[in-house]
Amino acid sequence: MSKTEITVQTDRFESTRELLESVKRVLIGLLSNKKGLAGLTLVGTMVFISFAAPLIAPYDPEALGIGPRLEPPTGEHLMGTDDLGRDVFSMFLYGGRISLTVGIAAGIVATVVATLIGVPAGYYRGRTGRWLTTAIDMSLVFPPFVLVIVFAAYIGSTVFNIIVILALLSWPIPARTIKAKAISVRENEFVESTRALGATDFTIMKDEVLPNVLPVVFANGVLQVVFTILMEAAVSFLGLGDPTRISWGTMLYFAQTEGALSLGAWWWMIFPGLGIVVTAFGFTLLGTALDEVLNPRLQRRTWGWD
Amino acid sequence: MSETETLLEIKDLEKHFSQSTGWVGSLLGKDKAVRAVDGVSLSLDRGEIVSIVGESGCGKTTLGKSLLRLIEPTAGSIEFHGTDITELPDDEMRDLRKEMQIVFQDPFQSLNPKKTVRQLVRQPLEIHGMSRTEAEARVVDALEDVGLSPVSDFLDRYPEEMSGGQLQRVSFARSLVLEPSFVVADEPTSMLDTSIRARVLDLMEELRNERDLSFLVITHDLSVARYLSDRVGVMYLGRLVEIGDADEMIMDPKHPYSKALIESIPSPTPYEEFDPADIEGEVPDPIDVPSGCRFHPRCPVATEECKRIEPEWRMVPTEGDASRYVECHEVDPKHVPADPQPQ
């Protein structure tokens, strides 16, 4: 009788408990890793100030003539003003929202697509694996940047469209990495032993392959966000971003077209540029740290160095 | 063993791994096949333990895996409970896996390190559609059956927190929780310390006695084979060369290869002179199998005939063993009964 008590007790929340456990473990790992701590701090700060923009921003980012035109940074306008007298600091805070939303959303979608295609591409040996691999390799051939420009020009550059386009064009590289990892996992004997129990391919991929591929998925996903943030900035800088929303990329676009450089209005370009660089750097640190935390072999090596 | 029921009947099972030499090679007809299993026939009764022994590379593991279709056999038939499973569609085969299981050599490899014992043993039941709560009760029973007690101490451990012997028991529990009637045990004790080995062997014996379970034990350890099994088969280069009653086989091997294999066991008595077998050379490449009898290049008694003609698989009853089969020209054929029973 006591047996059944033990089993029923822990049964109900098993998966949730385990998930929380591993999230906790990873967080602790990140916090005790120098790169992880730095990355979390940078990304956390950028995310916080962007999403708390309405609370922090001293002015309406779109209101014209808030201050004098092209004023260098002062106590009143921390990052100066642009040629229409808008407050650059307020625009910077609000602009981060679009850059981060587009970057993170597109990065996540791309990583999910990459996983859904990469895992079966690596797991299946026969024709299915070959077809999926061919699909990945062919998608890899398309120059993403050129296609983003073409698509943005054709289907219109709303925020949603930009997310979809960036996601659809950036999945092949992580898909290849995930596929390579899936190949090494499928060779494990526990995969064969699960097949011997009568499991379907789907169950094996879900229960045996995916959990062992996830570390690679996460580390890649974070680095994927860096790529999509930079892409978004590039697209907006070319004037193909959503014209109704301020992002760091569109700020740079206007600074460029209105001749900030020749006017000597360095603050107009430096701050949005810094926003992009700091965010991308933060995510890169986070991704590298995540790789180290989730991959015990790398971890041991860093311990040796420190 | 007067009333026996044949559980498994393998006929001319073959597994050839093709080694592609590229399309140029295939145009030149140079594609070659590794003949890992090259025509093995064997039958297994309910409740019987048969061991297959042989050097590494003789195809014994491939035989074990291909008769469960973990490796698809190239040719031959496998009848299980009277149905040929080589032609079964995938979904029926998956259902049938409840009945035929395998225990792998290294439990550290064959158990997912990210799962607890509870999850590992529950998984087979969930795969076959049992609800989690229902499965949990069976998990506890299965772990008790393999002697992991108190069970509550082990349920939430991860593989890395257990010893090899305990883990091998978990492997057994994972296979046996489905209540199969046939289990392939691939070197079940070779990764274990000698002290634990006997306990795992006893466990297998017990399972056979209690559940009428049949085992095909793949091993290179002749003492394990003798201790555990009813019959022992010797494999050489993809073929069975001899099979017979376990004790008789060890005491009185007929095939020159079996003799050599058995003589190579060092004697525990220091007074006896140890004279290892007089066979020379290495096992030939299974890509280039020798003509005639495949053992002839290393055989001490080979004749011209052996180089040309492949010997037949025939019954050679010995004094103590009426069920001995041998594949050799040189084994005295006088004892062949007038009406040999085809196997």
Q: Care to describe what's here?
A:
The complex is a heterodimer of chains A (306) and B (343). Chain A is an all-alpha fold and 306 residues long. Chain A has helices at 2-11, 14-31, 34-51, 53-56, 88-123, 127-141, 144-155, 159-170, 172-186, 189-196, 201-237, 248-257, 260-263, 266-294, 296-305. Chain A is elongated and about 75 Å long. By secondary structure, chain B is an alpha/beta fold. Helices cover 32% and strands 21% of the residues of chain B. Chain B is built from 13 helices and twelve strands. In chain B, a hairpin with a 2-residue loop joins strand 4 and strand 5 (83-84). In chain B, 43% of the residues are buried. Chains A and B meet through helix 1, helix 10 and helix 11 of A and helix 3, helix 5, helix 6 and helix 8 of B.
Number of helices of chain A: 15
Supply the CATH architecture of the domain at 6-87 and 219-334 in chain B. 3-Layer(aba) Sandwich
Strand order of the largest sheet of chain B: 6-7-8-3-9-10-12-11
Largest sheet of chain A: none
Determine and state the CATH class of the domain at 6-87 and 219-334 in chain B: Alpha Beta
Provide the residue-averaged pLDDT of chain B: 86
How many structural domains are formed by the residues of chain A? 1
The helix/strand series of chain A, from N terminus to C terminus, equals HHHHHHHHHHHHHHH
Sheet with the most strands, sense and barrel status of chain B = 8 strands, mixed
What's the CATH topology label of chain A?
MetI-like fold
Quaternary state, please? Answer: heterodimer
Query: What level of helicity do the residues of chain A show?
Result: over 70%
Number of strands of chain B: 12
Low-confidence stretches of chain B: 335-343
